[in-house]
Amino acid sequence: MPDPHHPLFLPADTVTPERDITHQHFRPGDQVIIVKGVAGAGLWGEAMTVVTPSWHTATDEDGWRLRNPRGGAQSYITAHPRYMTHTSRLCRDCLVHQRALEVHLLPKVSGATGPVDCGWYTLTGLNQLVHTGDARGGR
More exposed terminus of the chain, fewer Cβ within 10 Å: N or C? Predict the structure, then answer.
């Protein structure tokens, strides 16, 4: 069992894979964040804009094409709705998800001096974002 007090310990995200959120919850133009870890006393992640529906091959479910405003090699990726949290508007479902991540994660990464990427996500060769705890469908 990993030692949670070891400086390289990164807690698993058991919250996101269990999130029940529909594809219709998001719309083109929405600003969202993919929470990747902690920075200081809060959550940290990648801010993106929802562009258009796109099939998420990794889960064999409806996903969304997202645009990363910072550009780079992965300016556009596809993500499943359960990975995304609204930042452009307040909504109960996203606030509940964010709070659950805070309760789960912040105590486990307390004392970090800089941003901590917990390594929950990987990109496939098709630029599809996949959560490490998401063992569904067509991988």
Answer: N
Q: HSE of 55 in the Cβ direction (CA atoms, 13 Å)?
A: 4
Look up residue 51 and give its amino acid: V
- The backbone region for 113, taken as left when phi is positive above 0, alpha when psi lies in -120 to 50, beta otherwise, is alpha
Nearest to 35 by CA among 72, 69, 81, 85: 85
Count CB neighbours of 130 within 10 A.
22
* DSSP states along 55-111: EETTTTEEEEEEE-TT-STTSEEEE-GGG-EESSS--HHHHHHHHHHHHHHGGGGTT
How far is residue 137's CA from residue 128's CA, in Å, rounded to a whole number? 13
Residue 26 has pLDDT above 90, yes or no: yes
What does DSSP assign to residue 128? B
- With a CB cutoff of 8 Å and minimum separation 6, the contacts of 138 are 57, 58, 59, 60
Q: For residue 103, what pLDDT is reported?
A: 93
Confidence (pLDDT) at 135: 56
**DSSP 3-state of 16:** helix
